[in-house]
Amino acid sequence: MTSHQLCIVLDFGGQYNQLIARRVRECGVYCEVKSYKTSIEEIKSLNPVGIIFTGGPNSVYLESSPTISKEILELGIPILGICYGCQLMAHLSGGKVSTCISSEYGKTDTYYDKSSVIFGGIPELPEKAVSWMSHTDYISGLPEGFKITSHTENCPVASMENPDKKLYAVQFHPEVNHTEYGIKIIDSFLKNVCGCTGDWTMSNYAKTAVEDIRKKVGNGKVLLALSGGVDSSVAAALLAKAVGNQLTCIFVDHGFMRKNEGDEVEQAFADWGINFVRVNAKEQFMSKLRGVSDPETKRKTIGEEFIRVFEQEAKKIGAVDYLVQGTIYPDVIESGAGDAAVIKSHHNVGGLPDYVDFKEIIEPLRMLFKDEVRQLGTELGLSDVLVWRQPFPGPGLAIRIIGEITDEKLEILQDADYIFREEIAKAGLDRKISQYFAVLTSMRSVGVMGDSRTYDYTLALRGVTTTDFMTADFAKIPYDVLETIASRIVNEVNHINRIVYDVTTKPPATIEWE
Fold this sequence. Notes:
By secondary structure, the chain is α/β, with parallel strands linked by helices. The chain has 14 helices and 18 strands.
């Protein structure tokens, strides 16, 4: 990849490590998240223009807590410490960190010294603004050579700096939206301290990625399992731009897509000059799922059958040199970085067939966050239908139908879900709600339509807002929008006479019902 100015985010186990990296990139600066265990030699070899220490759940004065060699503070590379990173910088520099007499959590009035190098670079920053605090320790003794640049009622050192050594630190979290001017504080560090030019753009990334793929692939054959999801679709568009008809995309339509979705995926790639293979395998999948109502069995059955179909089709195209995966950066981070917990191990193909003989796996999106993947898709000319497609589980509607799947239930859910999504879009909420979908429950209830008694299905609607999908709040969809949705579904979709809205957060619930 053509080089950009690089900022390194050193992860000390903080919950916001991905968010910090995203904020840096929003400032037009390329960054990567590295473990605090990364050697000083490797850090120097990467030649970063700046380094950011993340937060973390530990106390810096405990021997078991994550730390790093003091040598990093002497490299002359500008460093910004955040929360735990702030305390670690103080600890390594000879200051004192102690347990707070009064811990600070949430929105906190913070008083800024505008003579600070970072804060002085933000003309609109007032002397008092709200920051987001989350700490039980604090800097009780300022290290030699540092000066205090902000404080709160309970925290005497809310930020500090040593410009001579290019060391800066904030006790609060500038990366979260609750901190007023937070993104400007990060931007000021990057531009006014590190001298970043902000050369990280999706336009530049697209050009260099295409060039790199062409060099790697040469005249080789490339295979991609296309789900129609955002990640695999953008990866396909990027490979299509790079190698054209050397790429074969196999789209296994298991029949559990949303209404018209299979056709939309096919149409989206109709003019890309690639070998696009759509396999309509609904009957094959349905035959395997007859009598199956357990959700985990559904998932495993569909996953295994997908591989079988993929194998059958891939054999037809012969030897393959490269296999493409739609791995994105959160997948890489969540699979284990630093002392952050391994949230889940990712393997985006779901199990590679033994017969596929390939030289290498290509992961063109592995350094991008989801919002950047969407930006790239738009940059490449991919349709909004795919770029802004709602997150969708691999088994599709099969796990949004509670109990056994039938053709009738599938048609009911497709029609109801379509109305839900259509009305959300009409209300201008489609890009404000992180995920929204309908679930056909197995519960039936009595209703009245016209002068007749009905005994039909209850449909559940689910909508959530989230930044990371690890936790989520239910979306506060306006009542008038919900009323319109419910009215349309009951009147236009047969066999539904009751609509409920899921107002459960995650946790305790998961986002999907099955």
